[in-house]
Amino acid sequence: MKKITIAIDGFSSCGKSTMAKALAKKLGYVYIDTGAMYRAVTLFALRHQLFNADGTVKEKELKTLMPDIHIRFQLDPSTGNPRTFLNGECVEKEIRGMEVSQHVSPIAAIPFVREALVAQQQTMGKEKGIVMDGRDIGTTVFPDAELKIFVTASAQVRAQRRYDELKAKGMPADFDDILKNVQERDYIDTHREVSPLKKADDAVELDNSKLTIAEQDQWLYKQYLSHLPV
Ligand SMILES: Nc1ncnc2c1ncn2[C@@H]1O[C@H](COP(=O)(O)OP(=O)(O)OP(=O)(O)O)[C@@H](O)[C@H]1O
Ligand SMILES: Nc1ccn([C@@H]2O[C@H](COP(=O)(O)O)[C@@H](O)[C@H]2O)c(=O)n1
């Protein structure tokens, strides 16, 4: 079967990676969570004190240090899911916490950061057979992807899902903080100058507010089948 490129974009915490991961497993495709890459750069910036007190980024310093940031993914043999490595260290847990979530959008708005990460993402997908999720995959990273999905759900629903997830993992979680963070990231992501979050003209939209994970997986598989080249 001919392999294709599948781009899944949408708002924060709406279930993109859940859907993307499941489809990639089913098809035997590579799965790439591009949000994890922006989160890893953010963790690096936090560890190197590259944020000013007002939350803005010390861009000049970060630019100098960009060549020292090496991100890769490695499958966890026990779960079959990819884990994110920053300069050889597994940072999967660290990048999912609130501190990184609260600092990631300003990092992701910086043109030289996007340029570097987009180039890596394009290299990862050049053989096709990839499901990649993020904010600009269908518009910027793979504008020629055969299948593009744009996922939405209400902010309340998304915050509740993230809250439940953090609680289940035993991580600190406050619903109001999470809702505020989801709304702030949506705002910054949709209003930044470079590659703002928006639906590609040829993307198929899914509001999964009322769908179960199984239902959205089924929906996505049907989309895949109907977008296979003839
Ligand atoms: N249809 C659904 N119903 C209920 N929970 C869901 C559904 N889809 C995903 N979830 C849960 O919502 C949470 C967020 O999902 P996920 O991490 O896939 O979102 P995301 O869009 O990739 O988020 P981010 O933008 O932060 O990368 C997870 O705990 C996931 O299990
Ligand atoms: N292609 C992408 C992916 C992510 N971002 C930014 O990273 C943040 C974290 O992403 P999650 O998917 O893990 O929520 C997100 O809020 C965006 O600011 C991006 O810009 N482009």
Q: Would you spell out the secondary-structure blueprint of this structure?
A:
Elements: E1 5-10, H1 16-27, E2 30-33, H2 34-47, H3 59-65, E3 71-75, E4 82-86, E5 89-90, H4 98-108, H5 111-124, E6 130-134, H6 137-141, E7 147-152, H7 155-168, H8 175-191, E8 204-207, H9 213-226
Parallel strand pairs: 1-6, 1-7, 2-6, 7-8
Antiparallel strand pairs: 3-4, 4-5
The structure holds adenosine-5'-triphosphate and the ligand Nc1ccn([C@@H]2O[C@H](COP(=O)(O)O)[C@@H](O)[C@H]2O)c(=O)n1.
Keywords: ATP-binding, Cytoplasm, Kinase, Nucleotide-binding, Transferase
Subcellular location: Cytoplasm
Family: Belongs to the cytidylate kinase family. Type 1 subfamily.
Overview of this protein structure:
Keywords: ATP-binding, Cytoplasm, Kinase, Nucleotide-binding, Transferase. InterPro entries: Cytidylate_kin, Cytidylate_kinase_dom, P-loop_NTPase. This protein is an alpha/beta fold and 230 residues long. It is built from 9 helices and 8 strands. The strands form 2 sheets. A 5-stranded parallel β-sheet has the order 2-6-1-7-8. Strands 3-4-5 form a 3-stranded antiparallel β-sheet, with helices on one face. Strand 3 and strand 4 (82-86) form a beta hairpin. The protein is globular, with a radius of gyration of 17 Å. The termini are close together. 37% of the residues are buried. The structure holds adenosine-5'-triphosphate and the ligand Nc1ccn([C@@H]2O[C@H](COP(=O)(O)O)[C@@H](O)[C@H]2O)c(=O)n1. The ligand Nc1ccn([C@@H]2O[C@H](COP(=O)(O)O)[C@@H](O)[C@H]2O)c(=O)n1 is lined by residues 12, 34-35, 38-39, 104-105, 108, 134-136, 185, 189.
